[in-house]
């Protein structure tokens, strides 16, 4: 059974503004309302999911770190989860040198030593625009949030095998920070999962392309 609400969480040092730009319209077109908590960091994300649950199973998920947290929440509370929307998973289990974790650690060091502007030098295009908008919202917490994310765990392959809800997974085939092979590993482990792919170029031109991909994968399992 599906849910009429989706509670979706942002990636590392991203925010609810990006989540809304990716998911709000695709979900609305499917008759699902978006809840995009203004939470910051792993602990706040878990708290936001706990607060959103009112007794009926929820569709949960997010982008990158947000997807990891939502999937972990579903592992811990299977009775609370109706399904998952997983966009750009970055690793499974411990990070163990995953590109996204290494990037977060490197950014944290530069933020502390030289500031946000220096950390974003050379980050151009739509991604640079998004980070320059979102990162200042974290203020003095930014470096700590980046390090916390790099040290956090996603569900292990064994834990993913135990999740029986439908899971829509989306990945960008040209994203070295969130390798498509990681998404394929998630899908291969999950009992009920489908993968749809897009590209970073498409995401730059149309944020909703990522949301549509994850939602299409999820809806394909409900027909």
TrEMBL record:
Highest taxon of the lineage: Bacteria
InterPro entries assigned to the protein according to its UniProt record, in alphabetical order: AB_hydrolase_fold
Record's protein name: Serine aminopeptidase S33 family
């Amino acid at each position: 059974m599906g849910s009429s609400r989706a509670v979706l969480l942002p990636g590392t040092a991203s925010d609810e503004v990006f989540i809304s730009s990716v998911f709000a319209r695709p979900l609305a077109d499917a008759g699902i309302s978006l809840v995009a908590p203004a939470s910051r960091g792993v602990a706040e994300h878990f708290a936001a999911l706990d607060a959103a649950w009112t007794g009926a199973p929820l569709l949960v998920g997010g982008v990158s770190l947000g997807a990891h947290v939502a999937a972990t929440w579903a592992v811990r509370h299977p009775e609370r989860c109706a399904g998952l929307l997983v966009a750009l998973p970055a690793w499974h289990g411990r990070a163990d040198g995953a590109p996204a974790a290494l990037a977060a650690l490197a950014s944290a060091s530069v933020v502390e030593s030289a500031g946000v502007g220096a950390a974003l030098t050379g980050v151009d295009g739509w991604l640079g625009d998004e980070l320059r908008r979102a990162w200042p919202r974290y203020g003095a917490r930014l470096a700590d949030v980046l390090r916390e994310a790099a040290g956090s765990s996603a569900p292990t392959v064994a834990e993913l095998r135990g999740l029986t809800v439908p899971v829509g997974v989306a990945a960008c085939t040209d994203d070295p920070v969130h390798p498509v092979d990681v998404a394929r590993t998630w899908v291969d482990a999950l009992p009920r999962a489908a993968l749809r792919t897009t590209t970073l170029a498409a995401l730059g031109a149309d944020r909703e392309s990522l949301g549509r991909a994850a939602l299409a994968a999820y809806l394909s399992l409900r027909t």
